[in-house]
Design brief:
The protein is built from eight helices and seven strands, in the order E-H-E-H-E-H-E-H-E-H-E-H-H-H-E. The chain is an alpha/beta fold. Strands 3-2-1-4-5-6-7 form a seven-stranded parallel sheet, with helices on both faces. The protein has one domain: NAD(P)-binding Rossmann-like Domain (Rossmann fold). It is globular. It comes from Albimonas pacifica.
Length: about 250
């Protein structure tokens, strides 16, 4: 990388966000780990990356507030010499339930947290990405290619985010901005423990899920980070508007 600016990673204290920060820092990017509730994790990781010689910082960011998000992104770009790219990896804990069992208020809150958060981050970042010709990568879900029952609270917001990414790709390509999404498959880390503790990922459920994956195993956050790193890199200079599945063949 040319050392100009940093990549903003929303959800930078979470499993995929943290893994992506590690990989991008390894590849020479400066990274800003945005957090809402994971301050200690974000600050600890940023300090670790700085100790390894990377340019890294932790950034408090409430994506539910559009004005505050825009102000924070502007201030970050001003302080760091620009915004080199954006990765959206935030997202609330998702309760698995059939559509008939999801209260409308819970559906609304989930859409607001995930979709509006992504929109606020992307909208705030676009003027800076135009200047840097920087890439955008958004985390979506492999369930957009093969819907698993009880996963609507994940699929619906990620479908909207994937559509947003396509729109950005079409409209912003003339400014040199590339936009892609990653269809994240079932992982053995990240939210896995929380979903297991909540009773959603029972042993039987995990085994059935594994049997539906062509590679017959779960993925890792580090493997998702590798896909994001490719999409951020010059090697993907002619790739935009895509939903790249990283799911072990689940959606085939």
């Amino acid at each position: 990388m040319d050392g100009t600016g940093v990549v903003l990673i929303t959800g930078g204290s979470g499993g995929i966000g943290a893994a992506t920060a590690r990989r991008l820092a390894q590849d020479g990017w400066g990274v800003a780990l945005a957090w809402r509730s994971g301050r200690e994790r974000a600050e600890t990781l940023a300090a670790e990356l700085r100790g390894d010689g990377a340019r890294a910082l932790a950034l408090p960011l409430d994506l539910s507030d559009a004005e505050a998000t825009a102000a924070a992104v502007d201030a970050l770009a001003e302080a760091q010499g620009g915004l080199a790219g954006l990765v959206t990896a935030h997202g609330p804990f998702i309760r698995m339930a059939h559509v008939s069992a999801i209260p409308p208020e819970q559906f609304r809150r989930t859409m607001e947290d995930d979709v509006f958060g992504a929109y606020h981050a992307i909208h705030a970042a676009l003027p800076h990405l135009r200047r840097s010709r920087g890439p955008l990568v958004a985390m979506a879900t492999a369930a957009l290619g093969r819907y698993p029952a009880t996963d609507m609270l994940s699929v619906a917001p990620k479908a909207a985010i994937a559509a947003l990414v396509r729109g950005v790709a079409v409209e912003e390509g003339r400014f040199g901005v590339r936009a892609n999404a990653v269809g994240v498959g079932m992982l053995s880390d990240g939210m896995f423990d929380a979903l297991q503790a909540a009773g959603h990922f029972t042993e039987s459920f995990v085994e059935k899920s594994r049997a539906n994956i062509a590679l017959r195993r779960l993925g890792t956050a580090a493997e998702i980070a590798s896909v994001a790193a490719f999409l951020m890199s010059p090697e993907a200079a002619y790739v935009t508007g895509q939903l790249l599945m990283a799911d072990g063949g689940y959606a085939v």
